[in-house]
């Protein structure tokens, strides 16, 4: 019943917005519609030097995909897309039904390559595993090559050049993590977005919230996190750009009430980028600059 209602609303939106979407295509270009900033950056890299389509982003930079509620204009873009690419693994939690006819960048992932949370729920934050990010980019490259075959060679050349940059990024991350004493490699964040980072780079992560921000956090969980910080002498906890900083401030208050101290990192311009890249023109507005921003921030405050 729910899916039938959604499909009915989608059809109504498409009819109401048909004139608007026609205006969006006045240049005659096909429209590649993507859900997240990570996929938008993949398409940007792959299509460098290619004038084959326009790219539209559904979830703006800085918004939380876990809880993003699509607008009528978003549904119109999705329904009228020539190419639709989304992340999957329930990352776009409130949009799943309207994305079924698109291509998921995670569709080729082996189940064993994914981290699991709870009873069989895969952690969707795969982009902190560079190998998985490459695999996702392979899928995007294949889809673009299928839909725009005359540009296949350009897509492949751009991908191979970029993969070399990702290998250099991997080396950079390893070198920076080595600066942190092993006893200090505990990263505390609001929600559990950095599991793949920890698994690949000898870090430990802990978050009061699970892998989705669309969940409640109990006072007991906050207190237990404070215990962990005190027991391990952790110097800093980190705010994320797409989460409410109040939880980290609450942790700081609890620790101070116990006679301890901890720095809350991210109240200015140094919040970690977890579920979204930064806005265009800001530090962290590409995948590589986002990764370096996070690693530099973590290392500089824990070493």
From TrEMBL:
<dbReference type="InterPro" id="IPR006128">
    <property type="entry name" value="Lipoprotein_PsaA-like"/>
</dbReference>
<protein>
    <submittedName>
        <fullName>Zinc ABC transporter solute-binding protein</fullName>
    </submittedName>
</protein>
<feature type="signal peptide">
    <location>
        <begin position="1"/>
        <end position="22"/>
    </location>
</feature>
<dbReference type="GO" id="GO:0030313">
    <property type="term" value="C:cell envelope"/>
</dbReference>
<keyword id="KW-0732">Signal</keyword>
<dbReference type="GO" id="GO:0007155">
    <property type="term" value="P:cell adhesion"/>
</dbReference>
<dbReference type="InterPro" id="IPR050492">
    <property type="entry name" value="Bact_metal-bind_prot9"/>
</dbReference>
<keyword id="KW-0479">Metal-binding</keyword>
<dbReference type="InterPro" id="IPR006129">
    <property type="entry name" value="AdhesinB"/>
</dbReference>
<dbReference type="InterPro" id="IPR006127">
    <property type="entry name" value="ZnuA-like"/>
</dbReference>
<comment type="similarity">
    <text>Belongs to the bacterial solute-binding protein 9 family.</text>
</comment>
<dbReference type="GO" id="GO:0030001">
    <property type="term" value="P:metal ion transport"/>
</dbReference>
<dbReference type="GO" id="GO:0046872">
    <property type="term" value="F:metal ion binding"/>
</dbReference>
<keyword id="KW-0813">Transport</keyword>
<dbReference type="Pfam" id="PF01297">
    <property type="entry name" value="ZnuA"/>
</dbReference>
